Amino acid sequence: MFYIKRNVKVRRLNGCGAFQATLKNYQLVVFASFLAIMWMIWSGLNVMLPDDPDAGCDCQKVFHVVGHRGLSDKAPENTMPAFELAAQETGFISLDLTRTADQHLVAMHDEYVDRTTDGHGAVSRMTLDDLRKLDAGQWFNPKYKGVRIPTLPEVFETLGNRSRYLLDIRKREDHNNPEGLIQSLADTVHAHGLELKVTLSLDDPEMIKLAKAAMPGATVLAKVNVLYTIVPLSAMWKVVEDSGADGVAAHFLMTLLHNTMIETARQMGKKVFIYTVDSMYVSKWLECLGVDAIVSNNPEKIVSGAECPITGAYGR
Questions:
Q1: Do 194 and 166 touch, CB atoms closer than 8 A?
Q2: What is the percent of the chain where pLDDT is above 70?
Q3: 312: helix, coil or strand?
Q4: Are the C-beta atoms of residues 105 and 97 closer than 8 Å to each other?
Q5: CB of 91 closer than 8 Å to CB of 163
Q6: Quick one: 81 and 189 in the same domain?
Q7: What DSSP line would sit under 150-176, residue for residue?
Q8: 121 and 209 inside one domain
Q9: Are residues 284 and 155 in the same domain?
Q10: How far apart are CA 137 and CA 132, in angstroms?
Q11: What is the model's pTM?
């Protein structure tokens, strides 16, 4: 028995040592990855950022500043107060859409309501009546107590032509009927006569194709995440071409690390929306590169220092 217990103890010690070694290796990998990312960013900054940010400004005739989830720096994200403020400031808002259990389109970024409301649970498992009982404002500031999660029709009915709309729809596990989702979205857009003021940001090629067919007058963008910064730029353009998207919604690091991105987009006749930019210096540089839109949590700051004329809710 003594030897058995001793062997068990040795095995436990060995297991602990293996765990510690694995943990140490993991920490080294994370640290090395962090250094690699910092090096890429620094390299991109050195290569791409101009010595004179005011030199060679190549503004687009139509250039937008988009309030990310509304004016989310000043009001709770994806709520009517945030949307109202952003519409007044830039005439262009972005909002995230997901569906309730009873198939209503609501403005919500997360799959779960926990972060931005006083409730708990997945949006896809809750009815609209369930969501209407939740407070979506007090977490941000007590003065917004009682603010509710809006539906897409409510947003359209409130703002109408006073704003343009960047609708961000990510493919989720609960989106088991993408055709129904896109058709519901298209019906809502058409019912309010806003197809020409709607831009869609979708990360699924099949949903992009469905949206292009259902809303030919809308702008449909392929949303590419930050991981595309570590693969050849051709991979991003392949997604755009295969899906028939009108352009891309990309993280600002894409333009830092791929210095031909905007030039290629112009040659292909594709639009480029860049998210999420809160630095005035980076914004000015992107404007002068010729991006079509900048999405920001603090659009007030971006507007105040803009190099290019900003197209609001009206005009082309």
A1: no
A2: 81
A3: coil
A4: yes
A5: yes
A6: yes
A7: PBHHHHHHHHGGG-EEEEEE---TT--
A8: yes
A9: yes
A10: 12
A11: 0.84
CATH number for the domain that contains residue 250: 3.20.20.190
Domain that holds residue 27: 1-48
Please, what sign has the CA dihedral across residues 268, 47, 297, 89?
A: negative
The C-alpha atoms of residue 198 and residue 210 are separated, in whole angstroms, by: 15
If one counts the domains in the chain, the total is 2
pLDDT tens digits for range 268-304: 999 999 999 999 999 999 999 999 999 999 999 999 9
Q: CA 183, CA 178: separation in Å to the nearest integer?
A: 8
Query: Does 234 share its domain with 104?
Result: yes
Is residue 7 predicted with pLDDT exceeding 50?
no
* Residue 89 pLDDT exceeds 80: yes
> Is 19 within the bounds of a domain?
yes
Q: Say if 56 falls within a structural domain.
A: no
State yes or no: pLDDT of 99 exceeds 60.
yes
∠ at Cα 87 (281, 105), nearest 5°?
110
Task: Tell me if 53 is assigned to some domain.
Answer: no
Identify whether 245 is part of a domain. yes
| Same domain for 12 and 138 | no
Quick one: pLDDT at residue 34?
55
Instruction: Measure the CA–CA gap between 230 and 33, rounded to whole angstroms.
Output: 12
Same domain for 34 and 75?
no
CA 264, chain centre distance (Å): 22
241-273 pLDDT per residue, tens: 999 999 999 999 898 888 899 999 999 999 999
